[in-house]
Specification:
The structure is a homodimer.
Chain A (H helix, E strand, L loop, with lengths): L7 H19 L4 E2 L1 H8 L3 H10 L10 E2 H12 L5 E6 L3 H8 L8 E8 L8 E2 L2 E5 L3 H8 L3 E4 L3 H14 L3 E4 L12 E4 L2 H16 L12
Parallel strand pairs in A: 3-4, 3-7, 4-6, 7-8, 8-9
Antiparallel strand pairs in A: 1-2, 5-6
Chain A binds a DNA duplex (24 and 24 nucleotides) through helix 3.
Chain lengths: ~220, ~220
DNA sequence: TAGATTGTTAATCGATTAACAATC
DNA sequence: TAGATTGTTAATCGATTAACAATC
């Protein structure tokens, strides 16, 4: 229990290692070295070694890392080896897309239902999932022991709906709105901040156009 | 031209300041201090001062910052004061949601059309935008002088479609796939990495459940 | 004026990178 | 064995925070 807690940055890199080694495994590879990973993803090999060590993966000198072990340990470290149920709050454009997006399956996240307060939407079924009355969020959360909720409502009501989620028993909010949420201690919020991402893209495109052709190319993919 | 280039981190914070001061302005405020911003968003007041300075905003001792000036300078610094045309490649669930999502208007990004290679989708119109044949991407990009493309195709074809985008003249790819894209120098890639975001959320929820109740609450919203 | 607040330089902190010893 | 690669400790680098001078 004296292990140093992993840094947010390292945590953000783990899924990329996981995805890459799964691809390598699909092509028949069984072991991989840090140098190889670093060539594919960028970043210093030592950094990758530290990240893997933090997730509990150990390699063998001269051999490298067993790909199966990376997959097993990293998946388990992230809690992605068994399925986690979650709910979606907000069945607008963005919300419904998140409902239909298959990509989340890979991460072991299963949306059991969507919630909205629009009577026109309540009762409908989209991508095989029911849209339920927001009022019933607490019932379902308690009954199915849900911990995670994705928030995808209009910005104007984000704060209020987040409060409702917390009162309903949600412990982790995956926030797809641009609003900074104020939640009580014990509740975690992780925001997908599209505006921040676009700011980085706009700025880099602008510097590029201004003739920063000599600068090193950096791909933060 | 000797200005220190702004850090990625600072860049990511700017949209949050922008959003908050716009909200304050809507409530009739005309000036704001760093301390106030820091109380609302978290983070050290000095950091906010440096971020604003990097975007060209100057305040006045004892007074604070003119909200109108923050809005004007930060918007212009990010290039969000005039509309930029962009295209969307990939008209699946996620792609269509991004097409319909109104939130991007605020950032001055206007999607002029979507592209796909599925004959069943080509020619259809969604959210008022046409879905065109992927083959015609180059034509439109050239004709309308488009620089930015959003990539929202299945992971399996992401690399190939990215190559097509680059060949078509796209200079900045906003990447919504989990794939690390390899692009030539001069092309910028910014990825919205949902897996990374979920990794952070999963991990924080897990540490919370393990009884890390004494730890400081951190909201990365 | 006195106090609040900005602007800027210096100190701290943490993440990344480099160096090198251990080892299959 | 010799060389490649991991694991780990030390050095570097950059971002954040603290201190303090300038000023409305």
């Amino acid at each position: 229990m004296t292990e140093t807690p992993i840094s947010i940055q390292a945590l953000r890199r783990l899924p990329q290692y996981l995805r890459l080694v799964k691809a390598l495994r699909a092509r028949g590879r069984e072991v991989v070295s840090c140098r190889r990973l670093s060539e594919e993803l960028g970043g210093d090999p030592t950094l990758i070694r530290k990240d893997l060590a933090a997730a509990g993966v150990t390699g063998r000198p001269k051999i490298g890392y067993q790909i199966d072990e990376i997959v097993a340990r990293v998946s388990s470290f992230l809690g992605w080896n068994n399925t986690t149920d979650a709910v979606l709050v907000g069945a607008g454009n963005l919300g419904l897309a998140l409902l239909g997006y298959e990509g989340f399956r890979e991460y072991g996240l299963n949306i059991v239902a969507a919630f909205d307060n629009d009577p026109a939407k309540i009762g409908r079924q989209v991508h095989g999932k029911f849209i339920l009355d927001q009022e019933k969020l607490g019932d379902l959360v308690e009954r199915m022991h849900i911990h995670i909720g994705r928030l995808a409502v209009p910005a104007a009501v984000a704060a209020d709906v987040a409060t409702l989620m917390v009162l309903s028993g949600i412990q982790a909010i995956w926030n797809f709105t641009p609003v900074k949420l104020d939640v009580p201690q014990g509740v975690v919020v992780e925001s997908v901040n599209l505006a921040s991402s676009l700011a980085v893209l706009s700025n880099r495109l602008a510097s590029m156009d201004l003739g920063e052709k000599g600068g090193p190319y950096v791909n933060h993919g």
